UniProtKB/TrEMBL annotation:
GO terms for molecular function: hexosyltransferase activity. Belongs to the glycosyltransferase 28 family. GO terms for biological process: dolichol-linked oligosaccharide biosynthetic process. Transmembrane segments: none annotated. This is Polysaccharide biosynthesis protein. Residues 170-302 form the Glycosyl transferase family 28 C-terminal domain. It holds the Pfam family Alg14. InterPro entries: Glyco_trans_28_C, Oligosacch_biosynth_Alg14. It comes from Ignisphaera aggregans.
Length: 320
């Protein structure tokens, strides 16, 4: 069996990895990553071949950029996707749309994954691809409210690749695009045991102000930092799932108000309740410090392995 999977950056790449871990050695995998996304490429290349296709629009990009990149994305999709593939898995993001529609044109069934952070309204990508999809993949029962015809598999979390221990540091992560407001607030706190993943935010000011912190932009082996943390302080994204369900870590969620194209506070509150995390509603030094202390006394719940359930279905019950 040959399977195409979009690894569209950030948490979308995380879904691709979670499935690749269960499919590796049982099917031939080809990953589609955004052009220039070194982090996503590094994450998936161990499981199969990788091709790059332009991502039409990032969270801070204009409509003009979307219109200029979209034709290029379709052209590269048409060149790289053949009828030889049995299944196409869309991990989400507008990056998945051109290759998914190309797959549909070539009669390849599409598994369309809804984000783990969507509860009150569907993601635009999933909605656009819905008429062309073989199945809508849901991660929570609550998502049936926004996709009545979707199938609930359970959360798609990565398998642990590192020993789960407590090295005493607090891991602060803002995902691919970073969370400058959160970083600046935490920088005001007198905390010495911080590991900070800055994403696209310049890490140098934090390195200079806190020479005893560990600060970096990206690490393809990011799991090792989650595995050793005492608490994970994260933006509202898939890192929350991997910290809580893969590595059984207490989690603090600090939503990023700058990401206007993503979901809102109500969704963040629901996700926090699902993984027993503490959510920070007022981004202040005191609120974050209190949330960290509160999180230390919380234990994550246990859920079915949604990635394994989905991978097994694809291998056994694919329509082709």
């Amino acid at each position: 069996m040959r399977i195409l999977i979009t690894a569209s950056g950030g948490g979308h790449t995380g879904y691709a990895v979670s499935l690749a871990q269960r499919l590796y050695g049982k099917a031939e995998l080809l990953f589609i990553v955004p052009e220039g996304d070194v982090w996503s490429k590094a994450k998936v290349k161990r499981y199969g071949e990788v091709i790059e296709i332009p991502k039409p629009r990032g969270p801070f990009d204009s409509i003009a950029k979307l219109l200029s990149r979209l034709p290029k994305a379709f052209i590269k999709s048409l060149r790289n996707i053949s009828r030889e593939f049995n299944v196409f898995i869309s991990s989400g993001s507008n990056h998945s749309i051109p290759p998914a529609l190309t797959a549909w044109l070539k009669d390849i069934p599409i598994y369309n994954i809804e984000s783990c952070v969507r509860f009150t309204k569907p993601s635009l990508t999933v909605s656009i691809l819905k008429p062309f999809s073989y199945k809508i993949v849901l991660q929570w029962n609550e998502q049936k409210k926004i996709h009545s015809n979707g199938v609930v598999y359970g959360p798609l979390y990565e398998l642990p690749e590192y020993e789960i221990i407590n090295k005493g540091y607090i891991l602060v992560t803002g995902g691919t695009y970073g969370h400058k407001l959160m970083y600046n607030i935490i920088s005001q706190l007198e905390l010495s045991n911080i590991v900070l993943q800055s994403g696209n935010v310049d890490p140098e000011p934090y390195k200079e102000k806190h020479p005893n912190w560990t600060v970096f932009k990206f690490d393809p082996d990011f799991g090792k930092w989650i595995a050793g943390a005492s608490v994970v302080v994260s933006h509202f994204g898939k890192t929350v799932i991997d910290a809580a369900l893969t590595y059984r870590k207490p989690v603090v969620i600090v939503p990023n108000p700058e990401l206007k194209l993503t979901v809102g506070w109500e969704d963040a509150k629901i996700l926090a309740s699902k993984v027993n995390a503490v959510i920070v509603e007022e981004i202040t030094p005191r609120a974050i410090l209190q949330a960290i202390e509160e999180a230390k006394h919380k234990n994550p719940p246990i859920y079915p392995d949604g990635a394994k359930i989905l991978a097994d279905e694809i291998l056994l019950h694919s329509p082709y």
